[in-house]
Specification:
CATH class: Alpha Beta
Organism: Pseudoluteimonas lycopersici
CATH architecture: 3-Layer(aba) Sandwich
Protein name: GNAT family N-acetyltransferase
Distance between the termini: 46 Å
Domain N-acetyltransferase: 4-149
Keywords: Acyltransferase, Transferase
Order of helices and strands: EHHEEEHEH
Largest sheet: 5 strands, mixed
Helix content: 25-40%
Strand content: 25-35%
Number of domains: 1
GO molecular function: acyltransferase activity, transferring groups other than amino-acyl groups
Length: 149
């Protein structure tokens, strides 16, 4: 049994998640800027543009999943993009990432979504194994991107 809980973040949680969100951004090569991380999360939350889920133990944030709403015209349904998933180094290999994936699935289901989607690099073997173990399917489609900055 896990000694942590998962839940949707509220207004008072943003400042607590921001340092971990900053660590996530740093992991992907961005310069550390906790104030920027806080402002970004706060704006998404205030505008209702995303759903931020967190895992916590004794008041400490262990990890987070950040989801953005999408819509499928073909399916005429809402989807959620699980854009960010991160677990603090000290909390890895304790089931936190899997719990956050499960919480994201439960959240999307409660919202009436038709599905969830995420993207990861082909060389991220541990993440891909985790997603498969959590019941996610690896699609044959290929995303394309167009940088605008």
């Amino acid at each position: 049994m896990n000694d942590f809980t998962t839940r949707r973040a509220g207004d008072d949680d943003i400042a607590r998640v921001a340092p971990l969100f900053d660590a996530y951004r740093s992991f992907y090569g961005q310069p550390s800027d906790v104030a920027r991380a806080d402002a970004f999360l706060r704006e998404r939350h205030t505008r209702g543009e995303s759903a931020l889920l967190l895992a916590e133990r004794d008041g400490d944030v262990l990890g987070f999943a950040h989801l953005y709403p999408l819509f499928s015209s073909v399916r005429t349904a809402r989807l959620w993009l699980l854009n960010d998933l991160f677990v603090a180094d000290s909390a890895r290999r304790q089931g936190v990432a899997r719990a956050l994936l499960d919480a994201a699935a439960a959240f999307a289901h409660e919202q009436g979504a038709a599905g969830l989607m995420l993207e990861t690099t082909r060389d991220n073997g541990p993440a891909r194994a985790l997603y498969r173990a959590a019941g996610w399917n690896e699609d044959a489609s290929q995303w394309y991107s167009l940088p605008l900055e």
